[in-house]
Amino acid sequence: MEEEVSLYDLFEVLSRRKKLMWGIFLLVFALGILYAGYMRYSSKDYEAVATIMVNPVSLTGIVQSEDAYENLLNATISYPQFTNETYMTIATSIVIIEKLIGNLDPSENYTVQSLSKKLKAEYSEKTNLMKLTVKDKNPERAAEIANNWVIVFKEALNESIQDQFNKIIELVTIRVDADRKDLDWVSQEIELIKEKNMDRIVIQKEMDKLTEQYLDYQKTLVDLDFIVKVQEVEIQKTKESLEKESQFIEIKKSILNEPIIMGYLLSTEGPIEPMSFSIISQELNQNYIELSRKLADLEICLAGDLRRKETPKESGIIDDLHKKILEKQTQLLKLEKELGTLEKQYEVYFNNYQTSFRKLDEIKTLTSAWTEDTNVTLLSKAIPPSEPTRGTSAKLILAVATVAGLFLAIFMAFFVEFLDKMKQYKKV
After folding, report:
1. How many domains, in total, are found in the chain?
2. Residue 301 included in any domain
3. 3-state secondary structure of 246
4. What is the CATH classification number for the domain harbouring 280?
């Protein structure tokens, strides 16, 4: 059966151990008095605070544009990015502390570890105001370190940003040079094709001249065809007239040679003189001769025109002209196709070159416009503090010592009582 512990038993234990309790309480309280005295009369630290305002840097070129090449450039460029956390990390980094040591008096023999313990960077609530606090036993030295810290921080930050911009400029410059080489290559190819195949205007003029000659020959052939047909019709008519004239002459001759008809003509009241018949015969012969000559002339002209018509065909002039025209057309189409492809490439490369060159100019302008106060602005310099930082007050130290001594005394009283009972239990 478990023993019940009453409140009376507890007070009895405390009463029996009151000497131990008083001893422990007084010991802890005495230690508190000694610590309070040490804090009061020991050398105190001074805090110097410099306040700066930081502006987060979030430069991005990823802006959707109608130009796909510009979007590609923006996607490949890594712009400087500085957030509040980045500023805090840089301000307390080893690089900054090492540079700060270089700006301070070498006789102080600061190390990164010893100086970092004196530095504290923090934001004022949820703002962009950063407080750079330096704690040192010398107020002037604390202010000097804080002000140098601001200078080193700004210089290092701007060097970092400038380095990033320089890398971007180098990257974009390489891209500009590559685009310029592409543009020069296309321009040279266009000039080579023009020199090799002549200019399109020259080829077109030559083709027009050949076409004009070809059409002239074709027109001449058409005219000759018409003339030949007219001459053939005229020859046919002349042949028919000549045939009729020949038949008429034969009839006249038969009449004159017929005795009955001749006697009749001579026996009429108005007899016809033999001379008249002779004249008529001569006229008939003259008409026949003229028709024969005309027919011969027409046949000669027809033969000449036929020869003129066949000469271009036999010599192959028309076929050669047609072949040359086709060759010029093929050459012109090939040239236009090659030049068309290269000219499209030229437009693309020219647009790429303009885009990359414009981007390079924008970055250079942004870099040249960058100033030290762009992202870090000094609001207030650190001044030597007139009073040391307040440590823990003596009253608070004594109050803590009193409470701690009381609880420790009670604990030790019950603990010693427990040990005594354990010894008695072992003896039994």
Report:
1. 1
2. yes
3. helix
4. 1.10.287.1490
Backbone angles phi, psi at 100, to 5 degrees: -65, -40
Q: Is 21 exposed, middle or buried (0-12, 13-18, 19+ CB in 10 A)?
A: buried
Q: Which two tokens stand for residue 218?
A: 């074709």
Q: Quick check: 284 pLDDT over 70?
A: no
Which of 365-368's residues contact partners 24+ apart within 8 Å by CB, and which partners?
366/59, 366/165, 367/162, 367/165, 367/166, 367/169
pTM for this model (two decimals)? 0.52
The answer on pLDDT for 361 being more than 90 is: no
- Per the structure, the complete domain to which residue 337 belongs is given by 200-349
* 235 located within any domain: yes
What are the distances in angstroms from CA 358 to CA 177, 330, 419?
Answer: 13, 41, 88
**What three-state secondary structure class fits 270?**
coil
Name every residue whose Cβ is closer than 8 Å to that of residue 162 and which is 6 or more positions away in sequence.
367, 370
**Cα(367)–Cα(79) distance, integer angstroms:** 12
pLDDT of residue 390: 62
Distance between CA atoms of residues 380 and 237, nearest Å: 126
* Distance, CA of 14 to chain centre: 87
Contacts (Cβ under 8 Å, ≥6 apart) of 70: 355, 359
Q: Are 180 and 353 in contact (CB under 8 A)?
A: yes
Instruction: Evaluate whether residue 364 is within a structural domain.
Output: no
